[in-house]
Amino acid sequence: MRAQLSPVKRAIVVMGKLPCPGRVKTRLAVDLGDQLAAELYEAFLRDVLDLACAEAQLLSAEALFSCGLSPQDSLRDAQALCPPDVRALRQGQGDLGARMEGARQASQARHVVIIGSDAPTMPRERLYEAFMCLDRGADAVVGPTVDGGYDLLGLTGPGRPLFDGVQWSTEAVLRQTQAAAERAGLRLETLSLGYDLDEIDDLPQALRDAQDGRAPRTRAALQAVLSVGQS
Question: What percentage of the chain's residues is helix, strand, coil (to nearest 5)?
């Protein structure tokens, strides 16, 4: 049974992009091609948005989709990808840290958990655990991944101190974030190890995890991709 959370304003933010071929999952596209990589990404994204929406309803939080849009893209395109109770926002400029901080500010929430669109098989309990860490007094919480980064970041205040000196999209992201937290005197808690879907070798694990019923779009898309690869 879940313990009750404190009565503060909460938000779950999904960081992502429109599933346009050539603009998403470029590492997967090396093996799968731009079109198939974009179709996979759309399945990942929609499952993550459903995850955020369902957990937000349980936690009395708002679910948001912070979408990276080019000048020719419309926010309506991002909103069309969302479940009815998820609100799309135009993602700001700058590096990943600046964009996450912008999304945190836009949420206007006291406790914010930010997740990416690359972990569709993330257990819903992971989001609750992150909010529990913030409730217990942590300044921030991260969900580490096997590639040295993280799939979740929870914040109770500005994230900028955590992003000082972080080289994004490298295997040093988690280590550098932990070092930044120590320099800033922030209490940073760490969840169990997770994973992102960035490389072709990541896909079989996700398909195994999805057999329990989570991430149905991802499961169907991965079954199609991996069955072709095995034929």
Answer: 45, 20, 35
